[in-house]
From TrEMBL:
A single Gene Ontology CC term: protein-DNA complex
Residue ranges of domain Response regulatory in the record: 2-116
Record PTM 4-aspartylphosphate, positions in chain: D51
Domain OmpR/PhoB-type, chain residue ranges per copy: 124-218
PROSITE patterns, per database record: OMPR_PHOB (PS51755), RESPONSE_REGULATORY (PS50110)
Name the record gives this protein: Response regulator
Length: 222
């Protein structure tokens, strides 16, 4: 999942970016509020981690602006502001979670996974569509109860398709979900990963909508 990290402290930011990447997230890191607002408006992030004490524009103001613009991206506020009025205001103006620094990295990842699945109407930790079960925390996939070995990119692509089940996603949309800044994308990368997923999980799992993109239906198409 591709997320935005807005944190001006270089040590904290680098640590969070590196740690979240190790836990399976693709992280774009910005260091000021104006950049955070710009990126949240421009890209379909699965979630955002937002510090409040950002230069150029306070994190609270960023949150107000993106919510007024209609963005529903899940936002986790991660801040040193621990006063109860700050927490109340942050949640009231649109934060989905509010966490006080310092935070355990694994807890932060778990909170992000929870926000992402709730944003897609998924109450359970594991995603299940037909005979395929995906566990975002363990990063495992099973087909009819048997483990299936996927590459990291194949897992991420399947995760996106399962979260957006019954929705057609174009190649460009999939690339935006899967690749953070500075990651070179080969022109046929999505097609190759789709081919591999079909080979490992069944040709009927993912459908091609010619001229549009790909869809993973919840129910098998007869």
């Amino acid at each position: 999942m591709r997320i935005l990290l807005a944190e001006d402290d270089p040590l904290i930011g680098e640590g969070l970016r590196a740690g979240l990447r190790q836990l399976g997230f693709h992280v774009d890191w910005v260091r000021d509020g104006e950049a955070a607002e710009r990126e949240l408006r421009a890209h379909p992030y699965a979630a955002a981690v937002l510090d409040l004490g950002l230069p150029l524009k306070d994190g609270m103001d960023v949150l107000v602006e993106v919510r007024q613009a209609g963005s529903a991206v899940p936002v986790l506020v991660l801040t040193a502001r621990d006063a109860v009025p700050d927490r109340i205001r942050g949640l009231d103006i649109g934060a989905d979670d509010y966490v006080i620094k310092p935070v355990d990295l694994h807890e932060l990842a778990a909170r992000l996974r929870a926000l992402i699945r709730r944003a897609h109407g998924q109450p359970q930790e594991r995603l299940r569509i037909r005979d395929v079960v995906l566990d975002p925390a363990a990063r495992t996939v099973q087909l009819e109860g048997e483990s299936v070995a996927l590459s990291a990119r194949e897992f991420d692509l399947l995760h996106v398709l399962m979260l957006h089940a019954d929705q057609v996603l174009s190649r460009e949309q999939l690339e935006q979900h899967l690749y953070s800044w500075g990651r070179e994308v080969e022109s046929n990368a999505i097609e190759v990963h789709i081919h591999n997923l079909r080979r490992k999980l069944g040709a009927a799992l993912i459908h091609t909508v010619r001229g549009v993109g790909y869809i993973l239906p919840r129910e098998s198409k007869k």
